[in-house]
Amino acid sequence: MKFSTRHIILRPMEEKDLSILHQWRNDGDFIQYCSVRRYPVEYEEFINELQKDFKNDRHRQFIIELQKERKVIGTTYSYNFNSIDGYAFITIYLEERYRYRGYGAEAVALFLRFLFESYPLYKIYMEVYDYNQHALSILQNASFEEEGRFKEHRFFREERYDLIRFAFFQKSLTKVFEFLENIKFYRKGGDV
């Protein structure tokens, strides 16, 4: 299943995406913003790591492409899915040159809609380190609610930083629908 706006496409991860995912996995920005892992790995180790992630807690993963160019620019995935309590966590990564253009907001909105419509979820979490001021600003302005702060949780570049957990509740999904309507949401090539 694919989802799209007039700017981006969100599609399931495929085998052809593994080399770019490996490249991003080793990118300093990915390590800084999206991972608890700290060091680059060889391709074979990445494949093993990814298989273990899907076996242990990775739930769904999508690739973010530019609509017109069909160029892969990022990924988003859910993990720690809990159908009994109704929550999951999500992470998003965009290549640096595609940030600050709204593509990330569109991808998260599409992914939130997909997850809430496909699974019995009450809320979806995103966790952000307090040095990621851009992401903090976006989440605070996009109906995500701060639910917790883990003080000095991450030791990075010789300093300690807080990890902030935000939740987006199913009851706020109408705001996602409004946002997607404003940017022309498409499913499987047709208007929704």
Model description:
The protein is an alpha+beta fold and 192 residues long. It has one domain: Aminopeptidase (3-Layer(aba) Sandwich), CATH 3.40.630.30. The chain has helices at residues 18-25, 28-34, 43-56, 103-118, 133-140, 173-182; strands spanning 3-4, 8-12, 58-66, 72-82, 87-94, 123-129, 145-156, 159-169, 186-187, 190-191. The protein has a ten-stranded mixed beta sheet with strand order 7-8-6-5-4-3-2-1-9-10, with helices on both faces. Strand 4 and strand 5 (87-94) form a beta hairpin. Helix 4 (103-118) crosses helix 6. The protein starts with a strand and ends with a strand. Mean pLDDT is 90; it is low at 187-192.
Inertia-based shape = globular
Q: Low-confidence stretches at least 5 residues in length (pLDDT < 50)? A: 187-192
Indicate the CATH class: Alpha Beta
Question: What is the mean pLDDT?
Answer: 90
Number of domains: 1
**What is the β-strand count?**
10
Secondary-structure element order, N to C: EEHHHEEEHEHEEHEE
Task: Summarize the amount of helix as a percent range.
Answer: 25-40%
